[in-house]
Model the fold of this input.
Amino acid sequence: MRLIPKSPTFRYKFLRFRLENKSCKVITKLFLLVIYVFGFVQLFPITQTAARTVNNSNACIHNSSLNGQISNLLETTTNVSNLASNPHQGIRVAMQSLTTPLSSYFNHSNFDESTLNLFASIPSPLQAVVPVGKAIALSLQPGFNFSSPIQRVDTTVANIPLTLISGGKPITIHADSRYQLEEVVAKSGTNAVAAVDGGFFSLKFLNSNVMIGPVYSYSTNKFVPGNQGENKKLANRPLVLISPVAVKYIPFEPDKHNTLQGIQAEMPGVTDAFVGAAWLVENGKPKTANYFDFLQGADGVRFRAFWGMNKEGVPVIGVSNKKLDSANLSKVLTKAGIQDAVMLDSGASTSLVYKGKSLVGYTPRPVPHAVALVGSESGCN
Done:
């Protein structure tokens, strides 16, 4: 038995309410008030976090985020007021919000495709009508945030001084030779604001850009497969995959991930790929000393370079300004709020550049590869 005709002709007619104008206004205001209160509830904890951190080195990050969210909440207030003055439009918004869960139900029912398309085409009110602030957007769409301003923070965690640069969108640069990192960035044409040295590379020739393992870079748009013999030694190390909207860290499989098609199968739209030295933090948990047994020099005390994502889905690159081993760096980064991180080429290669200037107090080894951040700079720096 069909509950809906095979060729339904209804559009928004079935959504119309025959209510008096006064009733419409009441329902509209109540519904929009719920949206507004939800936004405030999401924002309030962030204001408390900003207040608690106003005197520490991370205050700039929290206040920058807070200002943007308050601005969006004020914009939401204006839109709520406008919709409240137009009761029929408000009722339409309310009914659209109900069609989103209904469309999910219909997908499991025996209805016509045209009917399903109708419900699928009805936009969510939070997207189509009310530009709700970042707090709501982030809560409804958890994942990655590549739109935050790029900013530098010098901090100390567990007596280890760190320089962290967060924000923007991550990309990689594969230069045509080995250079100091400032020159790698300058020659790339990417307008990167910051960069850290990237993956391992061959030391056979001073002018070589040959990487250890496969590499695919935004700067060249070229995939270069790794040496088959070397690839076997990299099995299960973190394969870093970057697209315009996401980042993935997966165990490297030499037979599967040494072609462009292989990495595209793992991440459609991938723009960058390389094999990192090791995981430092995975799903918010530090790696223990036993994990690093496979990595030569992991227990050595040296400067370290790393990159990853924090708990808010914002990319972070950085270096330690004090020599330490890999296991201790894992603990430090976890305490610093990093959700996932991989170790990059470290020791003599450890390099970090911000706004065209090196942030390390020595002359590092020239490198051919970098993880960079592109986007706007924060006014806090």
Remarks:
- Residues 13-140 form one domain.
- Confidence is low (pLDDT under 50) at residues 1-19, 43-59, 61-68, 93-142.
